[in-house]
Design brief:
binds acetyl coenzyme *A, alpha/beta
Length: 309
């Protein structure tokens, strides 16, 4: 079956580790509360790096891993809602930083924590059309720039980072997906008087633990891909308890779920891409492997995909 396939992956973190004890010096919280409620132990914050810096580092590492030069890439998709500036797009700036040619389509996708899934769906459709050869897809977020550091209900959850993959369309590839949108800007969003991230945590939790298993189960049903054919499952890293709850409601054993939220916190559109980068570095993404990824977030939006290495 034809579809995109991953040629290489990379990642980058913010430059400073911030522990839960560090967060307890800023807001009224504790290491015990954060660990128990979320599984997070630390997060990386970009003090001296921009969002673009992290996107560039992740991209260079993915291109090196893939053995692909900037001139060979003709599509760059950056998934983020925390651009350093509203325009030019991050993708356009990144093309300049990487030294890509001028015959290139660059676009940013703003779908919050579902962003990387939406970016891959978009890239797969564009590459399937035959007008593009190789795509660089990045999830990058500097959430510290939009966090309300007076709100303990949200600020302890987030981290900064970027992940990137290089893909090409191949007869030997595989890509299937589903997605959805349930417009509601009161439960989860970024803006308002403070221009910061706001969230009704329990509502988001309920949404995630029902919608993500449903999305995964529907994708498995639609594709007829058996549990043994999927090597790893990556859920958006928002909360360890959400991931564990999802694992109980789908056909894949808990061991197939890759998790890094304990070290990174929630990095929104970057989270699944960072997982792929880490897994690649650990030698887990050998050619032929299939990974099921599932994201949810602001919108409310959700989506799942099966992608092949
Ligand atoms: N430290 C200590 N206490 C806290 C903290 C904190 N950081 N935050 C909240 N509390 C308190 C609350 O004030 C509340 O106390 P009260 O009962 O006296 O009012 C109590 O803890 C329980 O608060 P809840 O919000 O009900 O806690 P809950 O069990 O729902 O856990 C959490 C909160 C972890 C946020 C959970 O709801 C969750 O993970 N939701 C999903 C979040 C998510 O997935 N977000 C993804 C989107 S992010 C994006 O799009 C950028």
């Amino acid at each position: 079956m034809a579809g995109i396939r991953i040629l290489g992956c990379g990642y980058s973190y913010g430059d400073r580790i911030v522990t839960n004890d560090d967060m307890a010096k800023i807001v009224d919280t504790s290491d015990a509360w954060i660990r128990r409620k979320t599984g997070i132990r630390q997060r990386y914050i970009a003090e001296n790096k921009s969002n673009l810096d992290m996107a560039q580092e992740a991209s260079l590492s993915a291109m090196k891993c893939a053995g692909v030069t900037a001139e060979e890439i003709d599509l760059i998709v950056v998934c983020t809602f925390t651009q350093d500036d509203p325009t030019p797009s991050m993708a356009c700036k990144l093309a300049g930083k990487l030294g890509a040619g001028n015959d290139i389509l660059t676009l940013d996708i703003n779908s919050a924590c579902s962003g990387f899934i939406y970016g891959c769906i978009t890239a797969n459709a564009l590459l399937a059309g035959g007008s593009f050869r190789k795509a660089l897809i990045i999830g990058a977020e500097k959430l510290s720039s939009r966090a309300d550091m007076t709100d303990r209900r949200t600020c302890v959850l987030f981290g900064d980072g970027a992940g990137a993959i290089v893909c090409e369309y191949s007869e030997d590839g595989f890509f299937e997906s589903n997605f959805g949108c349930m417009p509601n800007d009161t439960i989860l969003g970024c803006g308002g008087d403070k221009g910061a991230i706001y969230m009704n945590g329990p509502e988001v939790y309920r949404f995630a633990v029902s919608k993500i298993p449903q999305s995964i189960n529907e994708l498995v049903e639609k594709t007829k891909v058996g549990p043994d054919e999927i090597d790893y499952v990556i859920c958006h890293q928002a909360n360890m308890r959400i991931i564990d709850s999802v694992a109980e409601k789908v056909v894949f054993p808990a061991e197939k779920f890759y998790k890094n939220i304990q070290n990174t916190g929630n990095t929104s559109a970057a989270s699944i891409a960072i997982c792929l980068g880490e897994m690649c570095e650990k030698g887990l993404l050998t050619p032929g492997r299939k990974i099921l990824c599932s994201g949810f977030g602001g919108g409310l939006t959700w989506g799942s995909m099966i992608i092949k290495v």
